[in-house]
Design a protein that fits this description.
Blueprint: E1 10-11, E2 14-21, E3 24-31, E4 57-60, E5 63-64, H1 70-105, H2 115-132, E6 136-143, H3 146-153, H4 155-171, E7 178-183, E8 186-192, H5 196-212, E9 215-217, E10 220-222, E11 226-232, H6 239-257
Antiparallel strand pairs: 1-2, 2-3, 3-4, 4-5, 6-8, 6-11, 7-8, 9-10
Helix pairs in contact: 3-4
């Protein structure tokens, strides 16, 4: 049997087993269980013990023990440490790539999609709706008097208002729905498998929830409200057109409330 060959073989009525632990391999030869009565298994120059003969050849990483000098062993151990370090560095690089991919799709401040990723999802939902004739709705939301919140309570309150809105949205839409920040205090929500009536009812409910649950910051209640516009995603509009119409519907709603 060649050093480093791990496949079982039969030789001279014996079976060969190759055991490997931590880079050190040991070849053990054991006589076949099928033998003539009172027969003796022997090998020239090898002591016999109760009919079993064991020949032990030790190697380290495929190198026979007799050929491993202290300098060779030190070099091999150094190489193994370098390989381990490369594995650690490779895992760190994979983690950085995963973080970069997440940042590429998510808003830098809020746990929602950014505009680019949101538009990609909008395109996907529209395409699926055309193919499978599944209804969906698009809502465009804008925080009322957001500048006034920043000017009165500070920019920290403005950031808190954005988070409060996102928390409210994510807590009251389904996991299959999509929430994204379109810019500043403007947000979009894609409601999958929702017809026009269901979409309008949902956006009204979201606006009411925000009024009933104002932002609390340092014991101070900060009233919030949103203006919302919506369109049905029936496959007749391209993503940009659908977003523009939802945006226009939102401004009509905002002006009507003044």
């Amino acid at each position: 049997m060649k050093i480093g060959d791990n496949s079982p073989q039969e030789a001279s009525g014996s079976s060969v087993r190759d055991l490997a632990v931590g880079g050190i391999s040991s070849v053990v030869r054991v006589p076949s269980p099928v033998s003539e009565p009172n027969s003796t298994f022997s090998s020239p120059g090898v002591p016999q013990s109760q009919g079993r003969v064991i020949a032990d050849n030790v190697s380290f990483m495929g190198i026979p023990e007799g050929e491993i000098t202290p300098s060779v062993r030190d070099a091999l151990m150094s190489l193994m440490r370098e390989v381990d370090q490369l594995r650690v560095e490779a895992e760190r690089m994979r983690q950085r790539i995963r973080e970069a991919e997440k940042l590429a799709d998510h808003d830098a401040l809020l746990p929602v999609l950014n505009r680019r990723a949101f538009m990609a999802e909008l395109s996907r939902v529209i395409a699926l709706g055309r193919r499978y004739r599944e209804p969906a709705g698009l809502a465009f939301l804008d925080i009322d008097n957001f500048k006034q919140i920043n000017d009165t309570f500070g920019h920290a309150a403005g950031d808190a208002a954005l988070r409060h809105l996102v928390d409210t949205l994510k807590a009251n839409v389904r996991e299959t729905d999509v929430v994204g920040r379109l810019g500043g205090d403007e947000f979009g929500v894609i409601l999958v498998r929702s017809d026009e009536t269901g979409t309008q009812a949902k956006v009204k409910a979201l606006a009411l929830l925000l009024k009933l649950h104002p932002l609390m910051m340092d014991g101070v209640e900060i009233p919030m409200s949103i203006s919302v516009g919506s369109v049905a995603l029936d496959g007749s509009r391209e993503p940009q057109q659908a977003l523009a119409e939802a945006d226009q519907a939102m401004y009509h709603s905002k002006r009507a409330a003044l």
